[in-house]
Predict the 3D structure of the following.
Amino acid sequence: MSVSVASTPPVPDATPPVADALPGYNYAFLDELSKKAIRRATLKAVCIPGYQVPFGSRELPISRGWGTGGLQLTLSLIGPGDVVKVIDQGADDSVNAVNIRRLVERTAPDVSTTTDTAAATIIQSRHRTPELPLRRDQIMVYQVPLPEPLRVIERREAETRRMHGEGDYSRMWVALYEDIVRNGRITRAAGYPVLVHGRHIMSPSPIPRWDLPKLHMAQNLSLFGAGREKRIYAIPPHTEVVPLAFEDYPFAVESFAGKACAFCGATDTFLVATPQADGSTYDVCSDTAFCADRVAAAANVQEDFPR
Amino acid sequence: MTAATSLATPTAATMDAPSTSHADTVLSVRDLGKRYGPGCPDCLRLTGPEFNRTTCPACGTVVACAEIAFDLRAGRTLGIVGESGSGKTTVLRSIYGDIAPTTGSAILRAPGKPDRDLFRLDPQHRRQVRNFELGMVYQTPQQGLNFGISAGGNVAERLLAAEWRRIARIRDRASELLERMEIPAGRMDALPGTFSGGMQQRVQVAKALANGPVLLLLDEMTSGLDVSVQAGVLDLIQEIQHDANIALIVVSHDLGVVRLLCERAIVMKNGRIVERGITDQILEDPHHPYTQLLVSSVNT
């Protein structure tokens, strides 16, 4: 395979100087009352793990569905001294991640951005949890397209709320039963439903099954924001997060047996297939920062791009 | 302990055990009434069979049923007969919890459990009672079954609500129940939409019986079936009742069904009970003019 290690580092985006903060805008773009309202919803979400708290989703300079829920959480939480990392499907260098990072940089003076997971205080993510275990002083913010895990089985919001309220989840279990009967296994790959704190069934956002064990009894706070659907929910630190499964059909993460990252050689990370011009694919770590760190450590060289 | 786990008092292990020692009276209904509308002091006085109306002329309130009282003993069957709009289904659905009655009480006595008033349970306990102690078979399969999931899945829903979490065991129990209802095991994973009307009703019965209820409610379950299929379903109901000692309430406008299944019956008209007693006695020697009309219209 002709993949050069040199191509691995994420492309650095042009970091504007802090003094470049947009004139005429409030700190972190949102006005103070909006941030207060979002923080109150967030606090309620932390108090009731897995419960979806409605909130007044604000207009942002990015479209709904492009991470506005996560961004509102990030903007309402950051303050001077914070270090923000934004990832999209594990990558720091996607257009969406770069633009969100740039917005944060321009509107929040004294907030820096990074691609280094360990250095970040707030990590906003779409569809992945970093491979590196997070610490208690870090906050994970997930962008959520569809917050309601019961929507697949019930269209009516009033009914799904009743089901959550009464803990009436038998129809969700029936859906999993039917999946096993028809397909021989639970086929749900991303957004696999989990039971949080033994009480609420929650959608973990479309992260792969691979990431679910990292949510269980995690050190860090995880926040989930759905801007379009106007919901915030949370997993506080040290909270039970159990994927729904049957005794004789237990939960299992994706298997990458026989595969390794083409860049860093990892066999213990979530791999994604990268297509090549000749139609073939090669596997690389989905978490680009984690991969780059390993490559750098292996080469024992300093990275040549800013963190 | 969390709310979700505290709800699961009847464990999967105990659900299989056949009910052995019922208290004598399973259900005591007193003063059951359901009104739709603001209500006024004259509602009860100005409605009922003597006026042949259920709508109060003073305030426009519909008195769907009022002053309904009866007892039901373990393993016995009560028939509720009456014309359309007489309040039969309102009574049944109030007991099952599909609608909230305006007045009255319904005390459920199940072995090993304290007496509970079904009309005063909070939603969680109400659902628990529906899942574990009551069974309901609706008039149409569309009301009682989910047509998007397999027949086995419909039955499994009850078992999953009772926290059964082993697929193999769930499938064993579901196929046992369906076979009991004469649905071949090979059809277990088929959608109910591919079944005949009689089979769909039998799936409903299997679902209602999944967790071993003490009281089974049948709401005109044979109305949509032809006579020969009807007879087969009724035979099965009788068998189950005999084997499992379940109390039954059968709502029907078909006097033949009530005569076959029920020792005792009540006759309703305009939301009130007009006659009650042993079924044969009511049918052979009806006292109330409405019952006389009902019986004579069948005989002619």
Q: What stands out?
A: Chain B has two domains: 25-31+66-133+213-300, 142-211. Strands of chain B lie at 25-36, 62-73, 77-82, 103-108, 116-117, 134-137, 215-219, 247-252, 264-269, 272-278. Chain B has a mean pLDDT of 87. The interface with chain A takes residues 2-5, 7, 123-124, 127, 131, 146, 149-150, 152-153, 156-158, 160-161, 165-168, 170, 189 of chain B (CB under 8 Å).
